[in-house]
Design a protein that fits this description.
Blueprint lengths: L1 H15 L2 E2 L5 H5 L3 E7 L4 H16 L4 E7 L4 H6 L7 E6 L2 E7 L4 H11 L2
Parallel strand pairs: 1-3, 2-3
Antiparallel strand pairs: 2-4, 4-5
Helix pairs in contact: 1-3, 3-5
Length: 120
């Protein structure tokens, strides 16, 4: 039982460890930054797996890359604006402009490779 509680707490912690963006601060927070934005829902099991992978990526990521999250249940307008139809979805931004979108789970190693090639 303790093991399941620990895993649950890790999942919840991973979902809450990055700054949540809203429609009000989205553009301002991404301006001038290389960013990966994770569009997720709290009830989505693959989103929880990706959240754990993002935690692993955080340890090794390039310093000039930031990670943000958007809860699509609270920010449906943002999800629609960026064409998010499946979860989890990662959207990559340079200076506030989206340039790439990935749907599904990415490993920390895949995220590192993407960061090295896409955020030159």
């Amino acid at each position: 039982m303790k093991r399941y509680l620990f895993i649950f707490l890790l999942s919840v912690t991973a979902l809450l460890s990055y700054e949540e963006l809203t429609i009000d601060d989205f553009d301002e927070k991404l301006k001038g930054k290389n960013a990966i934005v994770d569009f997720y829902a709290p009830w989505c099991p693959p989103c929880k797996i990706l959240a754990n992978n993002l935690e692993d990526f955080e340890i090794q990521k390039p310093e000039d890359v930031e990670i943000f999250k958007v809860n699509i249940e609270n920010e449906l307008v943002l999800a629609k604006k960026y064409g998010v139809r499946k979860l989890p979805t990662l959207i990559y931004f340079k200076d506030g402009k989206a340039f790439k979108q990935d749907v599904g789970i990415k490993t920390a190693d895949e995220l590192i490779e993407i960061s090295k090639t896409e955020f030159k």
